[in-house]
Specification:
65 residues, little secondary structure, two-stranded antiparallel sheet, 2 strands, 6% strand
Length: 65
């Protein structure tokens, strides 16, 4: 990681080749339901970083305004 000399404030970061081996565990959450404006908490332990993949959003009773 290093400081972007063009902006003087942004950090530049390169991907780490070993990133897959740094992931200690994988949790899968299925069939979660959320109401509009709600917050859904996920128990991920003491994670310092979370990678989210494959989100599918299904909407029912949807109408255009």
């Amino acid at each position: 990681m290093r400081l972007d000399t063009k902006t003087g404030s942004n950090l530049l970061q390169w991907p780490v080749a070993e990133v897959e081996s740094l992931r200690l565990r994988s949790d899968e959450f299925q069939n979660l339901k959320a109401q509009p404006g709600s917050v859904v908490s996920l128990d991920v332990g003491t994670a310092t970083q979370v990678c989210v993949h494959d989100i599918i959003i299904k909407m029912s009773n949807f109408s255009y305004a």
